[in-house]
Each structure stands twice: as structure tokens, then as C-alpha cells.
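[agent] plan:
  1. take the single chain provided in the ticket
  2. run structure prediction with default settings
  3. attach C-alpha cells to the ticket
  4. add a short note for the reviewer (M.T.)
[agent] executing step 1
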Amino acid sequence: MEKGLGEAIKDVYPAAEHRICIRHLWKNIKKKIHCKDGHKLQGLVWGASNAYTTTEYNDKLVELSVSYPTVYAYLISLPYKWSRSQFMYGIYHGTNTNNFAESFNAWIMEARNKPVVDLIDMIRGKLMEQRATRKMTSWSW
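[agent] step 2 finished; step 3 output follows
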């Protein structure tokens, strides 16, 4: 985030929460902390970030604190939220990244190499499926 932008957002939107994309957070962890068993560390960090409940999140953090205390200290010191279990209620989404462009590109991955007309048609179809699914889900609230 650019200098001053974070403070301006806090002034204009005081109730807004600051989240970070887990993919970018993981890249930062890999740069700062080198470890022998990266797959285990990745599983714990991503497991904590994808946790839906505080209990599940805390369990992963306990494992992190035992196995990787430096990573645990780094994650706890972050001023922004990075786990689904910590996100504000009422804001739901299927991904744990906040970067809309990345999320959208991942969502349309199979359509990206198609000609423009086919690309737009595939996106239209995906949007229709998504809206129908959400409509069905909303009936069970």
C-alpha cells in the first residue's frame, strides 16, 4: 500500500478492516524465513489462514509456535487480518485473497486462452452458475 493511503483509508472508512492476501503473505514468509521443511510450514500457515473457526485457527497457531517460533512471532505481530476465522462477520467470499484481479483471473483460468467471444460467453456462463448457486444457498438461511 502506498504511503499515506493506509492512513487516509482509516480516516475515511474507520470501520473497514485491513486484510492481506495469503498468497502474498506466504511469499513474504518464504523470503524472510528459510526453513528445511517448507511443505509442513506452508501447510500450517495456509491451514491457519483457511480456518473457518477460531478454534481451528488457534490449533494451527499452537502447532506453528512449537515448530516454527519465528514464523509464529511474525504472524502474530501483523497489524492486519490474514485468516478467515478473524474476518468480520457478514463479509463472505470463497477465496482467501483480497486481490480481486487475481481472484478473478484464477476463477476464469480455463477461459483465458479462448477467443474473445468464447471468453465472454464462458464468463457469462460462470456468472449465471454462481448467481444460481448463491440464490439456492440464500433459500436455506
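[agent] step 4 note for reviewer: The mean pLDDT is 83.
[agent] ticket updated
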